[in-house]
Design brief:
Length: about 575
């Protein structure tokens, strides 16, 4: 056999290795022969060991270092391997610099892989240098490279630079659009992400694909824009993407996050194959929408269907228990996590348990659990406990929790408000005013709370006592009328209910209009009778607004759905899905 054929045979042997141990055995055999350092054989072996599925970076780095004169392709393989592994990407950047020092001129692939390493290593300066080099080398029409460049800017929070690259691209494929959309959602420009989806739909250049739909559904979920989400759902069905499991999983998540759990269940129910993500999305959706018992039932059902829960499933089901006050179930599931499923509880699971026990009044047990944890409690956990102290008017524990928050330097404006609400609930006005004064003296400012409502795909936002909306006079007139109607039905404004973070500068003696009341009044004003009113609020809803929405739902015969910071409230016929337990 001549050497050319021999070389080909060895390369196909390398390619056919089905396990890493086979490949390593072959390596030692090749080292004993003279073949290994023949460049094509060496490169073939290097790619096999460095890249997926085997991906052994330390081993491939050792092999690479033994080769006296690695080619550009060998460098590219190694830089690519660094971009694909979990490490910092810095090793890839060192190789990139070494490559240039050794006098090689790199190509578009080198730049693509190096940019991925730059994104991982958060090295903006080197990435920008590569960008300049791309223009100099005349690679500015390479779609894959430019898309990677956009992704690099997006990862480093430079959304503007990513847009610029996109605008200057001679041709944009669907991948480039998708990168730009995910750049928007990543950098807090969620509305722009949806506008891009619209642009793609109306242009013939690159219509949205299934990945675009996933990204846009995620954006709808975080913006609570059900109408837009429904439109994407129609597009998905029209284009046959609904047979994809991940698309269905995202639909479930979107509908759940927009408060339409019935629709989420419909999608879930029609799926032919459900994986752990489908079940987890459904369980979490049921949990945040107030169907805790159903979430627990689904948790048992998934196991009967032989789908094993993962850590996120546990977060979902435990939050369902806490929202619905299912203490025994919660305790049981929490105890089974590690024992039966090998899932070690993380900070979120403990957070759910503290919430569950705290809300249900087992404050000492909750405090004991926090103190017994092997992991360090985060500020969110202390804040959860503080919230429970407010519900159960437990002043001394509340003060202790504040001390812990001070200790971890995590005290925020909202915590002062919570503490003052604890004092308020036991009628200790002296302390309430003391805290207010302290906040003033220390210049602690609260961020204004906002509520939003979507009408014909336009988002209307309100702050407390807002006067900025163009229809504000009509809205206040509507609110007066609603108040009159509700009073007849027995609604009493809780003048000393409580005050929320950032909900106006009202003193506890005067109830002003919280932002959700303005949004609800605008909803009553602007939609035909019987339409469901959906409001999103960035903080917890207060007792007074909760009563207001409950009575309104019966007097005006409307379903009202309020998504607050941590859950949904579905008001209907004078009741709320949370059973006043939130
Ligand atoms: Zn309120
Ligand atoms: Zn409620």
């Amino acid at each position: 056999m001549n050497s050319f054929h021999e070389e080909k045979a060895i390369i196909s042997l390398i390619k056919s290795c089905s396990s890493k141990s086979h490949l390593l055995q072959l390596h030692s055999r090749l080292l004993r022969s003279s073949h290994f350092f023949t460049p094509p054989i060496f490169l073939s072996f290097l790619s096999r060991i460095a890249l997926p599925p085997f991906r052994d970076l330390p081993y491939s780095a050792a092999v690479f270092s033994t080769f006296p004169a690695p080619s550009l392709s060998a460098y590219n393989t190694m830089i690519r391997a660094h971009s694909l592994t979990r490490g910092s990407g810095r090793g890839g950047l060192r190789l990139y610099q070494e490559l240039h020092r050794s006098g090689f001129s790199s190509d578009a692939l080198t730049a693509t892989f190096a940019l991925k390493c730059c994104a991982k290593a958060e090295s903006f300066s080197l990435g920008a240098q590569i960008h300049t080099k791309i223009w100099k080398d005349g690679c500015s029409s390479d779609g894959l490279l430019l898309t990677t460049l956009m992704d690099f800017y997006s990862c480093l929070g430079k959304g503007g630079d990513a847009w610029k690259v996109f605008d200057e691209m001679p041709q944009r494929d669907v991948v480039a659009w998708n990168v730009l959309i995910s750049c928007c959602t990543r950098n807090g420009r969620t509305r722009d992400a949806l506008a891009l989806f619209d642009r793609m739909k109306s242009s013939n250049e690159s219509p949205p694909d299934d990945v675009t739909c996933l990204l846009a559904l995620h954006a709808c979920g975080s913006l609570n824009t059900l109408e837009f989400g429904e439109e994407i759902h129609r597009y998905i069905v029209e284009n046959g993407f609904h047979s994809s499991k991940s698309v269905c999983n995202s639909l479930i998540a979107m509908y759940s996050r927009c408060g339409n759990v019935e629709k989420a269940f419909e999608v879930f129910d029609q799926m032919a194959n459900r994986d752990v993500v489908s079940w987890t999305s459904m369980i979490s959706g049921l949990a945040t929408n107030g169907y805790g018992a159903d979430a627990v039932a689904a948790f048992w059902k998934m196991q009967r269907e032989n789908v094993l829960p993962d850590d996120q499933t546990f977060t979902g089901v435990l939050s369902g228990c806490s929202h619905a006050g299912l203490v025994d179930e919660g305790r049981m599931i929490f105890a089974s996590m590690e024992r039966d499923f090998g899932v070690t509880p993380n900070v979120h699971h403990y957070g759910c348990m503290v919430d569950l026990l705290g809300r249900a009044g087992f404050l000492d047990e909750a405090y004991g659990l926090v103190n017994s944890m092997k992991i360090k409690p985060d500020t969110a956990m202390w804040r959860t406990l503080l919230g429970a102290c407010r519900i159960h008017r437990h002043v001394s524990l509340g003060e202790k929790v504040i001390d812990h928050l001070v200790e971890v330097k995590g005290l925020e404006a909202g915590d002062y408000i919570l503490l003052s609400n604890i004092y308020l609930s036991i009628g200790n006005m002296e302390k309430v005013l003391e805290i207010r004064k302290m906040m003033n003296d220390r210049g602690i400012e609260t961020t204004p709370a906002a509520s939003s409502i979507e009408l014909n795909r336009k988002l209307h936002e309100f702050l407390a006592d807002d006067v900025s909306h163009p229809k504000i006079n009509e809205i206040y007139r509507m609110l007066d009328e609603i108040n009159q109607q509700l009073r007849i039905a027995g609604y009493v404004v809780e003048a000393t209910s409580e005050f929320n973070t950032g909900e106006s500068n009202s003193t506890p003696y005067r109830m002003s209009y919280h932002s959700e009341k303005l949004a609800i009044a605008f909803g009553v004003l602007s939609t035909p009778p019987g339409t469901t009113i959906r409001v999103a609020k960035d903080l917890r809803i207060c007792v007074d607004c909760h009563n207001f929405a409950k009575i309104l739902s019966t007097v005006y015969d409307r379903k009202v759905v309020v998504r607050d910071r941590s859950r949904f409230h579905h008001f209907r016929d004078g009741r709320c899905s949370c059973n006043d337990y939130w």
